[in-house]
Amino acid sequence: MASERTPSPATALIAPEALQVAVAALLAWYDAERRDLPWRQTRDPYRIWLSEVLLQQTQVATALPYYARLVERYPTVEALAASDLNELLALWQGLGYYARARSLRRAAQQIVAQHGGRLPQDYEALLALPGIGEYTAGAVLSIAFGLPTPAIDGNVRRVLARLFDLAKDLRTPEMQRWLTMASLAMLPPERAGDYNQAMMELGASLCRPRDAACGACPLRQACLAHDRGTASDRPVRPPRRQTPTHERVAAHCLDNDRLLIVRRLPSGLLGGLWELPNFALPPNAAPTAALQMALAPHAPDALPGEELTLVRHAYTHFSVRVHVLACTLTGFVPSGEWDACHWLALDELERYGLTGVALKAMRQGPWLAPRLL
DNA sequence: AAAGCGGGGGC
DNA sequence: GCCCCAGCTTT
Question: CB-based contacts with strand B under 7 Å?
């Protein structure tokens, strides 16, 4: 039975026998070269799930320290389900895509409530959980449970685009289905988890976006792009737009060595994270006047002073330049894009998840900068 | 089907 | 500066 393969458009491009030989070479390569990663030293589906969420849009080296801290603090699904969101966001600080943390926590709560604290061993049930899409469901099922389910991430898309010399935009649903069919045709049922991880590891180490190391690739003999010399043109990318830069102004308010921070609404950009009160700076407006006017609804007595520092920060689709002004005020009423405020003491710093801009403003400003030396 | 969502790292 | 990364959700 293992020799039977699901009929696939992929086998029209590469013969099934050649594909099987290539997969065998891939697995042999993986057995010899696989990295020793912490989530490869466990069979705990919870930890494998946690690692997969951390690795969404995140490189392995970046995820490693976060994985260690999260496993330490939340060793079980139950512990994560009972976690405090502010504390979780603080542990997540700097990783980005903070909706992952909120979804992870909600999913843990659903797993406790609906699945007895165990991850469901079922594709549809996994997909129904917050933060789990096709990739993560396939990764958990194959790696943790050994089920023959594809797991197609950016690495796998690139490897397949080259192996089959695909010239179309892979992000369309049509091509996503094509890649799923191709993966099913290649996937060895007895080593599903290893196959998926091998494809990802190949994309991360040899079949890189640039400078692919085709000479060492276990798939070289079957690879159509290598044969045709098109590997560096695969996968094709749609053109990108240029990103705008926004000017903003922020209030650096101290009271008895405590710094005023405000919390963003729970959803949307940087949801649930803490930051300095900050506002758009209209073109040609004076930062001092603009800040005082914008602060008025929250703090009528606010009095902005000198500019302490300028923070530059780049997001994916835009950049900001934030003028950070010293400011005095007696109180702050959160509303609009904020739902809470707090006077932060130095020894509380690690308990609050802060935005990258807030962190830079603190490090560059007079409150924190002198104590970092 | 397309857009929103972060920050780090390589070059 | 641009590109990419073990993607998911919302509209």
Answer: A 57-59, 61-62, 94-99, 172-174, 210-211, 268-271, 313, 315-317, 355-357
* Catalytic residue (one of A17, A52, A306, A348): A52
Token pair of A255, please?
Answer: 């009271």
Q: CB atoms < 10 A from the CB of A170, how many? A: 20
User: Which nucleotide minimizes the distance between its C1' and the CA of A59?
Assistant: C5
| Residue A307 falls in the annotated catalytic set | no
For chain A, domains (ranges, CATH) are: 9-233 (1.10.340.30), 245-372 (3.90.79.10)
Over the stretch A222-276, which tens digit does the pLDDT of each residue have?
Answer: 999 999 999 999 999 887 777 889 999 999 999 999 999 999 999 999 999 999 9
CB A362 within 8 A of CB A371: no
- Of A76, A57, A87, nearest to A348 by C-alpha is A87
